[in-house]
Design a protein that fits this description.
The protein is mainly beta and 274 residues long. Helices cover 8% and strands 44% of the residues. It contains two helices and 20 strands. Strands 1, 3, 4, 6, 9 and 11 form a six-stranded antiparallel β-sheet that branches. A hairpin with a 4-residue loop joins strand 7 (118-124) and strand 8. The longest helix is centred in the N-terminal third of the chain and has 18 residues, at 2-19.
Length: 274
């Protein structure tokens, strides 16, 4: 059993590696190659490789980026400076990479004083910037003491010059700022269900799941196992039906590998729980 678990963990790692198109963890103290950034009117800049407590992130326990991240410390810039700063990633040709479905996985922390300060994520669609995430200063996730994870479907913006941009606007006030721990661009169409196609297998929604994942086939689905990214089995079912519904509502946000068996055939695919 331990050997099987190890093999499946290795499979998950390989699966995730194939799905990953672009990643930046901002662990280094210098700006990553290919990235660019703007500064505030008084010269306040993004700080890379920050691994301390995020000031203002929690009333009792502060959040942190233990392995490093990038922050914009608005509080260090003074009052009413009107900081609007950007951090832009390198372009990538998703057309040449044959990507038909893509998603962003982002770990960040938004700290505010009062309800001031907005954090935004834009993507370049080939001709203009499109906003895909807007975190307002009065969002309920602010100052929680824990980092937030967002999964964003960007399939509608696939092009030959795709890139991402993070924007922070302090709304001309003095507030704490924002930090980004990790950014990933994933190929959300990556799957290995070829052996099941002839059996009429399909699943939806794809790839973003909020609560219920529905599996369907022309023959009885015998086994369904769901694994997290470290190989732990979080759902196990033996439906023996043509349709099976998986309740993922209580699972943490993130990526999961779903393994399905129909008779003697098996297949696996990835979903993103939001």
């Amino acid at each position: 059993m331990k050997k099987l678990n190890l093999l499946y963990i290795l499979f998950c790692i390989a699966f995730i590696s194939n799905a990953q198109i672009q990643e930046e963890n901002f662990n280094s103290s210098t700006m990553p190659s290919g990235w660019s950034a703007t500064t505030g009117p008084t010269g306040c800049a993004w700080v890379f490789g920050f691994d301390g407590d995020l000031v203002g992130s929690g009333f009792t326990n502060a959040a942190s980026f233990t392995s490093g991240g990038v922050i914009f410390d608005d509080n260090a810039c003074g009052e009413f400076v009107n900081n609007v700063v950007e951090l832009e990633g390198p372009a990538i040709d998703l057309i040449a990479a044959n990507v038909v479905s893509a998603g962003i996985e982002l770990v960040y922390n938004h700290q505010v004083i009062g309800i001031s300060g907005n954090f935004m994520v834009d993507v370049w669609d080939g001709s203009t910037w499109q906003n895909v995430l807007f975190v307002d200063g009065d969002d309920t996730e602010r100052n929680t003491g824990t980092n937030a994870t967002k999964n964003i479907d960007v399939s509608a913006y696939i092009n030959s010059n795709f890139k991402v941009k993070f924007i922070y606007d302090d709304e001309n006030t003095q507030t704490w700022g924002v930090g980004i721990d990790n950014y990933k661009l994933l190929n959300t169409a990556t799957a290995n269900i070829g052996d099941l196609v002839d059996l009429g297998f399909n699943y939806y929604p794809n790839p973003i799941v909020n609560d219920i994942l529905t599996l369907q086939a022309n023959e009885e689905i015998s086994i369904v196992n769901v694994y997290n990214t470290i190989g732990q089995k979080v759902i196990a079912k033996k439906p023996i039906t043509l349709e099976s519904k998986l309740n993922m509502e209580n699972l943490p946000e993130g990526m999961y590998i779903v393994n399905v068996a129909i008779g003697k055939k098996e297949g696996s695919f990835k979903v993103i729980k939001q």
